[in-house]
Design a protein that fits this description.
Blueprint (H helix, E strand, L loop, with lengths): L29 H15 L1 H7 L27 E3 L5 E3 L8 E6 L4 H17 L5 E7 L3 H10 L6 E4 L16 E5 L5 E5 L5 H13 L19 H4 L2
Parallel strand pairs: 3-4, 4-5
Antiparallel strand pairs: 1-2, 3-6, 6-7
Helix pairs in contact: 3-5
């Protein structure tokens, strides 16, 4: 089977006329249209993805996985995902909200162990205004949703059957991975290891506070040596 097409990594700021509005009422961009179509195609290939692409090296620790992710201080690249019913949802639709992204999979033992911690943190952070995008990968939306329901999850489940459709932009090599994106769409923190509820809540509240110099509360991002954008932009 051929690999999924690589997508350009430019921001989704080139808009198309005459296209139907998506969920948030914004127009779909050219890049978003490509992503939507590619996500639909990957659903068909889901069984192959689960059977042939899950590797033991992708579980539970960071390592070289960090080089493939957006860094703290950078603008979050375009990210599309499948929601309930196969609806395509984009990270850009949540602009104006602090967002906690969790890449996980029901096939991943560290993710399974972390799931109750995420639920606890979600219940604490959602009323404060933090949006959780729990994005499963390398499996179908239904598989991950079934696991979440059976495990007592109450947060929405999203899915990207094959992360490689984004090229190296979101080529997550480790599960679980957590990214924290501020209301302006800037990545503020990245973690490539499992976390307990206290750590997850501390990071979420730090994201809400918006003080990027207050690293002590959450620890330095494993993907960078500092949090401040002026220190991290290259």
């Amino acid at each position: 089977m051929t690999s999924a097409p690589r997508l350009p990594t430019n921001r989704d700021d080139v808009r198309l006329d005459e296209l139907a509005a998506h969920r948030s009422g914004q127009q779909l961009t050219r890049l978003q249209v490509v992503i939507s179509v590619t996500l639909a195609i990957t659903i068909v290939a889901g069984a192959w993805l689960v059977g042939g692409r899950i590797g033991i090296a992708e579980l539970g620790s960071g390592g070289v996985a960090r080089q493939y992710l957006p860094k703290a201080g950078e603008e979050a690249p375009t990210l599309g995902m499948l929601g309930e019913g196969g609806q395509t949802v984009f990270l850009s639709q949540f602009r104006g909200e602090p967002v906690w992204i969790n890449f996980w999979g029901s096939w991943c033992p560290p993710c399974q162990a972390e799931f109750p911690e995420i639920e606890t943190a979600y219940r604490a952070l959602a009323p404060q205004g933090v949006t959780l995008l729990a994005i499963s990968a390398k499996e179908s939306w239904q598989t991950s949703s079934d696991f979440a329901v059976a495990s007592g999850g109450t947060f929405p489940i999203y899915n990207i059957p094959d992360l490689t459709i984004f090229g190296e932009t979101w080529d997550t090599r480790n599960f679980p991975t957590h990214l924290y994106v501020d209301a302006e769409g800037i990545v503020r923190y990245v973690s490539t290891k499992p976390s307990d509820a206290a750590e997850l809540i501390a990071r979420g509240e730090w994201l809400l506070a918006g003080d990027w110099t207050a690293v002590a509360a959450v620890g330095p991002s494993p993907i960078s040596v500092a949090i401040r954008p002026e220190d991290l932009r290259v």
